[in-house]
Amino acid sequence: MSIRGLKKKQPKTFKVKIITVDAEMEFSCEMKWKGKDLFDLVCRALGLRETWFFGLQYTIKGMCTWLKMDKKVLDQEIPKEDPVSFHFLAKFYPEKVEEELLQEITQHLFFLQVKKQILDEEIYCSPEATVLLASYAVQAKYGDYDPNFHEPGFLAHDELLPKRVLRQYQLTAEMWEEKITAWYAEHRGIARDEAEMNYLKIAQDLEMYGVNYFPIAQIKNHTDLLLGVDAKGIHIYSINNRFSPNKSFEWSAIRNISYSEKELTIKPLDKKAEVFKFFSSQLKVNKLIFQLCIGNHDLFMRRRKVDSIEIQQMKAQAREEKARKKMENQRLAREKQLREEAERAKEELERRLFQLEDEARQANEALLRSQEAAELLAEKAQIAEEEAKLLAQNAAEAEQERQRLEITALKTKEEKRLMEQKMREAELIAVKLVKESDRRAKEAEHLKQDLHEAREAERKAKQKLLDITRLNYPHMAKYPQYSPTETRDANFDKGSIKLDLKDIDLKRLSFEIEKERLDYLEKSRKFEDRLKELKSEIHALKLEEKQSGLYS
């Protein structure tokens, strides 16, 4: 067979674009395919087995219509475009999401669609409930809340609340994020599928959840009404109230539904009850209402029958998958808890190590300061000793000057006057020298006491440093071999011997200083006594001069 013959036998196709809530896909659809063939192809691509909830929707002349499964795709009134666009959406809603949604992909698609309907305000939700639903949506997207990772502003690009709620309350984006995060932090440990299921369980209790609304008019009194079709039955609403129906027909209470052109009739199971007749603006609307009624009624009856083998298998697989995920989540939670405990223990050890290092550093600094203080005090003591020697030398010079003045005082009257003046100055200087000597002696005594206290502080700092070293390195005591620590200890012992020798020298010097100070004080007292004697002698000389003047 030639290649040209093979090409002729290939079926003709046209392009189709399938739009889900969060993705887009393109397929090649054969010309002869029915709607079910294209629908099954999309379900296989998504890995979806619970196909009875979904359908392919398209828009023609401003009206949303569902693709019929039993008719060819091209025979239906689809848009004339390339590629032809269809929206893969949930057509029918479960009564109880937790019991009927078995596959995770089914649950995820419902979650995305219901979330979009709430944000687009197709389903009314109170502000408090929207914040709670937003927190579950954040948990499903970001996982557990971590304040170190989820910093303020991490929800800035996420659409989580309806615009009606944002307009109703004058709150900033930061305030809304704070409210959502407060709930989000409470959902710690909830997996993504569990968070999505919690979202749907809250949403299914909303009045407008899963209801398809159509404008109608009652034939009896030509009143404009709204007809709603959902999983539980048919509801009649007033035109301005979509929350509370004026009248409801449950699927179990409906005997027959029929339509002819624009007129649609609902016959209750109770033959005595009034037949409800209404008409819509278009025949297509009646067909769409009738199609939704048949599908919801079939599912309503199916839920109340024994599950088929396929459903039983799917439920068993779902239970096994949930049990497996639960065990996996528990294992991950335990591992996470152990990891957090290990991190906390590590942080505590690091904090303790840092504290010990800080204490060791402070002890070293205290030791250095005490050593510097000891050196400074030793230097001051040496300076005080030199000053005391200098003062003693100055006192000796003053004594010599006084003796010289005493000798020269007998020469002339002028010389006597000068001698008396110098004697008074020498007396003042001697008194000052005595006082200064006493002050220097006391200062030397204080310096010796400060030196003793500084060396005591140095000894205590060294002892504290040794204690901290033994606490940080307890294993060093097990190995008596040569180490840098022993070298430092040896050096420390040598230093202690040197310090002891210095202490002995210092005591000897202090004793000598004290002895010289006492000698100096004794000499000063003798010097003062001698000055007094000189004064009395000078006074006696003056008296003699006056008497000799009188005699002359």
In the predicted model, the low-confidence regions spanning at least 5 consecutive residues are: 475-502
Multimeric organization: single chain
The total tally of domains equals: 4
Number of helices: 12
Which structural class matches the secondary elements? alpha+beta
Helicity level: 55-70%
What is the radius of gyration computed over CA atoms, rounded to a whole number of angstroms? 54 Å
Q: What is the H/E string?
A: HEEHEEEHHHHHHEEEEEEEHHHH
How many DSSP-defined strands?
12
Largest sheet: 7 strands, antiparallel
Please give the order of strands in the largest beta sheet: 9-8-7-6-12-11-10
GO molecular function: actin binding
Subcellular location: Cell membrane; Cell projection; Cytoplasm; Nucleus
Keywords: Cell membrane, Cell projection, Coiled coil, Cytoplasm, Membrane, Nucleus, Phosphoprotein, Ubl conjugation
Membrane topology: Peripheral membrane protein
